[in-house]
Amino acid sequence: MSWVAPRWLKVFRDLWSNKTRTILVLLSIAVGVSAIGMVMGAQIIVDRNLPEAYTAINPASATIYTFNTFDDRMVEAVEALSQVAEAEARRSVNLRFRSPNSDEWRNLTVTAIPDYEDITINKLKPEDGAYPPPPRELLLERASFGASLGLGDVGIGDTLLVESPSGKQRTMRIAGSVHDMSQLPAFMNGAGYGYIDFETLAWLDEPRDYNQLVFVVSENKSDMDHINDVAKLIEKRMESSGVNVLFALVFTPGEHPAQNFLDAFSLILGGIGVLALGLSGFLIVNTLSAILTQHVRQIGIMKAIGARAGQISVMYLVMSLLFGILALMIAIPLGSLGAAGLAYIFSGMLNFDVEGLRPEPQVVIVQSVIAIAAPLLAAFWPILRGVRVTVREAISEIGLGKGHFGHSLLDRILVGLRRIAPMGRPMQISIRNTFRRKARLSLTLITLSLASVIFIAIFSIRASLQQTMDDALSFFDYDVQVVFSRAYRTDRITQQLDNVSGVDAVETWGFGTARRIRPDNSESEAIIVYAPEPDTTMLHPIIVEGRWLDPDDANAIVLNTDALRDEADVGVGSVITLNINGKEMDWVVVGIVRGILTGANAFANFSHFAYVTNEVDRAQVSLVRLDDRSSASQLAKGQEIEQAYRNGGFRVDQMGTIDQLRTTINTIFDVLIAFLLSMALLLGVVGGLGLMGTMSINVMERTREIGVMRAIGASNNSVLRIVLVEGLIIGLISWAIGGLIALPASRFLTMTVGMVLLQAAPSYIFSVGGAILWLIIVLALAFMASYLPARHASQLTVREVLSYE
Amino acid sequence: MSEIAANGRRASGGPPLIRLERILKSYQTPAGEFIALRDVDLSIGAGEFVAVVGKSGSGKSTLINMITGIDRPTDGEIYIADTAIHKLAEGPMAEWRGRNIGVIFQFFQLLPMLSCIENVMLPMDFCDMFKPSEREARALDLLHQVDMASEANKLPSEISGGQQQRVAIARAMANDPPLIVADEPTGNLDTRSADSVFKLFEDLVRQGKTILMVTHDEELAERTSRRITLADGEIVGDHAVHPQGLPQETGEPPRVPATRIPAT
Ligand SMILES: Nc1ncnc2c1ncn2[C@@H]1O[C@H](COP(=O)(O)OP(=O)(O)OP(=O)(O)O)[C@@H](O)[C@H]1O
Ligand SMILES: [Mg+2]
Fold first, then answer.
1. Please, are residues A478 and A625 in contact by the beta-carbon 8 Å criterion?
2. Chain A within 8 Å of B103 (Cβ-Cβ)?
């Protein structure tokens, strides 16, 4: 190897002779660079696949859901509007079903489409089995085959026992599967999706009419305001023909319905990727400073034999460069593998296909730049400082005492500590050693503390989301909700449950949609109106201003804060005009309550609302509170109640329990949280690597001291303990710092994630449990990170140590 | 493992405190096997004050590292009192050494983050000697003996080299070991500091300790009771000396084994 100059040989030998440290540095850089590659790569893959696939189905500009049904003439009238390019109608019904191996009734959202061969909007893609659905059979959406939806153990060819709203039970075969990208992923819907034709609908005793209109606007396709205007125009037209509109669903044009979910992920992922990279930068600074400190004497000798500072700097810069290049070799495949995995998870969650999983050139370029630049940048300062050492300083460094202790105020305080808390010398050594290398300690603490902040914040996000849900759910204090296909006499609805045991209370509420006619004659978004009896015990509103409804209020109305978001001129005492079922009436706002995730809501007295809607003493909703409110009881009683109504001749459209709702929402939140946690764990790994690096550098630096301790009687265990305790102290400090920062940071992150995910400010609570859990994890992490260095220390023989330079 | 009878002077004719039998120490070097100690037999009785002298590289450090258990012989056996220390594993060895041998280094080697008194208390902590509540008083007492009590709460970086070596001697005495081994303890000190350190050693011998000391200083070597000379890994001289300063309370000169002639 005579062609390699001796000083380059030295660089290679330095890397090789300390393999553990070299590997630690490589891993540190590789983790950060891989994280960037993973996040960026996944983003590129998703961006390449999702919009294209979504556009290909010709997504509807909006979907209008109606209370009562309409026919083809209505569709033709809508299509004739110049603002509308295409319109199609469908009917969707909520069926109840039982799979062959289960006795639990579950919900299935079934859509009937007139002509499966000629769908122009929200196109379906046939996947497996039959297409279109054969008579008296159904197709399932491919992402509906899941255990959480009650369809985990069924496949094409199996049969389901289904029950229609009228109570008709039929056995239906699953004939095939389709891919439907127009709907929210089934797991977010809480029910699977099925597809049938109109013949089958009739066979299930359901009317052949439509209750859902999809349309595409003819111009300004990506202008949400325009789409809203057109939707309102269509709603008006429908309502003038006697069709009551439930609501219009407008998603951001060109974006998948669950895009906001994806955005929440990307936001967090991007942040964590950058964090991981920044942290691995700290690790590089730490390690290179340590290497240079150890090389002080060598540097002095090199200088003594004529090396210039520049030449020495170049040697160490090349060393950092080598670190970067080697790390890149790990990070490129690892990053693109991670990107593919992440894209795969996203595609599973949002139900789309991904293709072309390959290393992306842009990603590789970014990774290369970072992997090469980061170590060079990180090394710059330590190298500058290291090469400035004079020959005399370098050669005079002998004996113990590297990492000068005792000069700062902090050291004084630490020495004084023993007067307050008596402890043995080994413990004092651990504590004081912790603070000997203050710069190194700071960098290690930054890394670990950040991991602590993120972890605790994620648990707070989780707790807050759950709290938000609980708040929202406890706003409505009932257990079982039954929605009928039409209105029934209220006393009949209540009396029907007289013979059902375990029922605490039954209430019937009016229910409808309203729009505010503003002074300038424009219309507001739809506001859902709830009309409970004045003595209701099933509502727990939080009054923000004004008062709740009085029994003798007539045209008094209470609005929630969400309803006021776009109506800044409305306050307590305002008189507003509402259009309910085509009737325009004046209402007096008497109070404002806090809105909790339920959208724009209004509350009116039942009797007056029934009068306005021509449904005096009649209601479409039955709400039941049970004696035993456990989830098992809700499920069992819910089915009993549903059956009681069916037996009494009621047409039941939907039965739902609060517990089912909670489970569905929890599933969505948990996916997000699991994801966030794995990211926090990634940071934890980076932090652990950092701590491991720090501890092994510390041990290496203190080899001679450890030898002296051995010489004066320290057993293996004593040495092991001294090093382990130091690692645990660092872990503990990082936890405390992280916890303190997490107090404000979790609130901020919860609000950010909440706004992206829910489009509303969530309730906030700080997760004490998360903080405690992280304490356990960080101590375990610190233990693992210090164990190897500690064991290494405990196995040093005095002889090795005293000859150590 | 048995402990050496504390402060026990060697009973006349009794077994020696330290016994080395046919010790061979060799190192593997790129140039081949290098023999640092060749066939060394040596016994040292309790209460002796032994100086080990010889040229640089003659094997002095290697020899005393065999006795402290800091290094292991390639072949041969070492007994200290009844303990076969060549058989002890590294961990038990450290504890045994902590209780039975006080080790003093050339570069003092006080732990920099502990104050003087804490450095002296440390061996008691490690070997769990004396009651925790007594340790501080004992450490102060030892510092008193080496005339360092006034600096007890200073950190090593705040005192001079000679002072550090005195603290190191107090630390070596912490567990009241019968044997003290020092590798060039005065090598890094000026003449006056060296002299006062040596006086401390003389005090310890008077108290009944056995001391084994490597030194380059001929004058100091003359003041011990026995001088062992090494050359090229072999004992080439082993003399009883008759120091002016060292009182021979027993009136009995140390046992002097037969001088070996180097085999060349
Ligand atoms: N680990 C080792 N590998 C190879 N040779 C060694 C090793 N340790 C010591 N030696 C050699 O053994 C011989 C004896 O060394 P030792 O340290 O005992 O000498 P010394 O008499 O203490 O010298 P000094 O007065 O310089 O301290 C020396 O020639 C040395 O080079
Ligand atoms: Mg030596």
1. yes
2. yes
